[in-house]
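Q: Could you write out the predicted structure for this multi-component system? I'm mainly interested in how the pieces pack against one another.
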Amino acid sequence: MNRFVFGLVVLGLAQAQDVRQIVAESQKRSQSKSEQYEGTIEVFGSSNKVSLKHWEFERIGSFGVSKSILRFTAPAEVKGVALLIVNHPDRSSDQWMWTPALERDRHIALQDRSTRFFGTDFSFEDLEERDVNQFDYKLLGEELVDGQQCWKIESKPKEAKSSQYTSAVLFIRKDIYVGIQIESYAKDKLVRRIRYSDIQKLDDIWTARTIEVYDANRKSRTVLKLEKLKYNVPMKDENFTLEALRRG
Amino acid sequence: MILLKLISWPYIRKHLLRWMLTIAGIVLGVAVFLGMHTANQSVLYAFRQTVDRIAGSTQLQVSASETGFDESVLERVQSVPEVRAAAPVIEASVNTGLKGQGNILILGVDMTGDRNLRDYELESGEAGIVDDPLVFLAQPDSIIVTDTFARQNQLGIGSKVPMSTMEGEKLFTVRGIMKSSGLSSAFGGNLAIMDIYATQKVFGRGRRFDRIDLTVKDGARVEDVKKKIEGMLGPSFQVESPSARGGQFESISHVYALTANITSAFALFIGMFLIYNTFQISVTQRRSEIGILRALGATRGQIRTLFMGESVLAGLIGSTLGVLLGIGIARLMLGYIGSLLGEVFGIAEKAKEISTNPALILFAIVLGVITSVVAAFIPARNAARVDPVQALQKGKYQQMSAGENRVRRITAFVIAILGVACLVFRQSHGLVYAGDALTLLAALLLTPTVAQLVVQALRPLLRWVRPVEGTLAADSLLQAPRRTSGAVAALMLSLALVVALGGMTRASYGSILNWLSVALNPDLFISTSESLTTRGFRFPESMGPQLSGVSGVADVQGVRIARIQVRGMQTIFVAADIAALSRRATLPPTAGNTAEMYRLASQGKAVLISDNYALLRGVKLGDVLDIASPRGVLHLPVAGVVVDYSDQQGSILLDRSVYKRYWDDSTVNLFRVFLTPGASETDVKRRILEALGNQRRLFVLTNREVRQYIMRLTDQWFGITYVQIAVAVLVAVLGIVNTLTVSITDRRRELGVLQAVGGLRNQIRRTIWLEALTIGLVGLILGLALGALQLYFGLRITGEDLAGLRLNYEYPYEISLMLLPVILLAAFLSAIGPAESAVHGSLVEALEYE
């Protein structure tokens, strides 16, 4: 899920000097055949109102070839609403949303990926799991974040890549090669900051169990907590299709 | 200016009543013009505002007329690289079921992407829920309303709003309230936002959208993107800016605007006569004043300028008062116009406030002033030509010379011949209008001569009624032909208009009733709304077999009615099973072979067009219509022209199989239901409602109810005609009052002499009464005669330019008979005031007067 949420995911590579190799190794170390968890998401609005939602998440495959389904389980009025994400190695993902009350699926257009993901501070684009090859990197230096020494790396989407962000600054821990912060910019203006914390090792993969996203425009934040997280659970490919999405 | 102050002002002050009566024509003309246009523009302005406000930052809108289009078109539009954001839209106007609220405009949007185009500015409720598209999307009963609507109905977050849907009346939950801003003030604030897929479901739209709103990327030219999308989607789609869409409805309602123009032009025309008449008399009365001025060295130009200055002043005051009255009229007419545009043209818009257009007001004022100036031109010229020596000789009035009369008659004769020639050799609509104008002009030029002849013919009758007073009245009229003819002409024009309008209304009703008796023969009509012109909801095709299964139903015909662009104009399409239609109702053809045209049309090889479409668009039997559809351009010949008044601008009848195939649309607006012999209309209606009423929104209308509805619409449309008739009668009465007032003042000396030589007050009174009645009678005779001619032109113009109705000429005798007492009574009442003023004035003053 971390990669799923990361969007511009980054992991680290301790010894590598080449910045692209750092990101590639980070991606390699976080790979798994599948992933499953239950998420609790809290949105803290600018007027201090808090909304709480729960979902179940499943992923099969990894990075550029992965497919994910996210189904809301609570509150009651959103139960059953689901999102299917099919990632591609060479282009942006395809995304469909299913609304059971209408028995309708709808394709989330590429141009709409910059909009907020159902009232949270994530955008649809932030949900994409992108491949290291879709970006160009530049090492900006090293910096201490939350007491941890990190590589500070700038990533810019390649021309073929459609993105609302013109650049992002990734902070990758030097000790365990896990990304712990991403700052996303549009024309040098900070749009979102995503912080990864509560990092635990599970099935030999360092994973952040708490992800906090801050929307600089709205001055609001969303906290996602990952529970019952499992990697490499046996899953079937046919459960990640439009038909499966509609079946519920 | 000094002359105006020294010479004109004392005169105006002395004859204030007459002056006010004179400018009344201008007041009325300007008021009618401004009032009718302002009411119309207010509704259209409100509509344009709704379009603009709903459009948000939209730069282009993709639509396919009223038929909508398949969802797949959205991805094609979104795939255009220059498109920054494209979002689908469905618009529907529905009844809320909330007391006093009437209709609300539902804007179905996809909230995931729509915020790229529109700002919803949600204001209350739990931000996490209201401002959360997920709940909005997950719950199909979600709506966002405007704060105006919420306030008016005491609604808050979570409140329920009942609305008529295709699934019957349903309760919707308010999940957001928009702040007062651009979008929320659209449709007068009666606006609700819904998820587009929920909108599709509850309004029976299938998997179709009405429109796609889009913005282009920075650096891309809107015009280039427009062309690119047009090329990609083909001619059945329209790619326009939101403002162009607002303009479409102006073209639809142009008939109304034209009618408003004709009414006000008429009022101004009569006003021109009143001014001309008064100025002409004023010149005669002030002859000695003019003579003194000329003797003191005033030039002809200065005299002309003085009278023209007076006319400008009269025009300005008249126009200003007209503007004020016009705004009042607009307020009164706003509701009527809104409902007319909604019912007849399908423009669902409500204007709560009138929007005054400064340019329109300025135009109305200029129009009033120009009318006044034109009317005063000839009197001013005559004033300038006054000979100072003759003018200073008391009692020597200028009379119309025999030579002037002869020239007038010859000119009238030539113009009349030209008018007839225009009619005989009319190649274009313009010649009909020219013929009408020339005939009117000839009639006006002949008025003095004909009026004299009629008065002479009436003289024995008058003498028989009252030997002394009758003779005096007739002679007075005969001795002042210019004064008499002015009043008679104004009256004649007004009454001619009344006759023409009355005749046209009668003929239109006759034609519509004939059509109703032939075409509207189903026993029941199953409609998605109470108003048959509302096409926002649609039935699925599968409802047809369900209806057939109801006991007592013999035959069911599904009809899809939609406005589609043909030859650049939005045209009503009636897609029906032509073979089934012909079995039940053979619409009488005005061109084409009945059997052959129905055969070809039912095979989808041709279309039938309505007679009014043929007349208005100049389409003939055998012409091939190129009709753009989502599946390519259809080239279908016109196999027949039939009488069908489904739409004021004409309609095209097409077999539904072709429509379904080319528009990928199997939905139906209306089911025509025929009952088995002996089945009761009421019982079958009840059974249909029991079987299907709970599943979906439907209205079962009996044949009688539909006829009543159509007649109500027709009445509504002719409401404008009644306004025109009222204006005409009012102007006619005004003409008589004005003439008599002017006439009495003009003849004060003559009347004084009469009294001095022993004339009794009652004799003077009766003379004036008889004079007024004679003017009324002469005006009536000439008006009814000219009306007969105007009716002919009116029917041609209505037939070929306005409504495309092929109307039979029938003289409206009832209206003519009704006018006789009305005008005579009006003439008599108008005479009371002047008569009393004549007998109660000072005799010395009267004898000194001139």
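A: Regarding packing and overall arrangement: The first strand of chain A starts at residue 34 and ends at 44.
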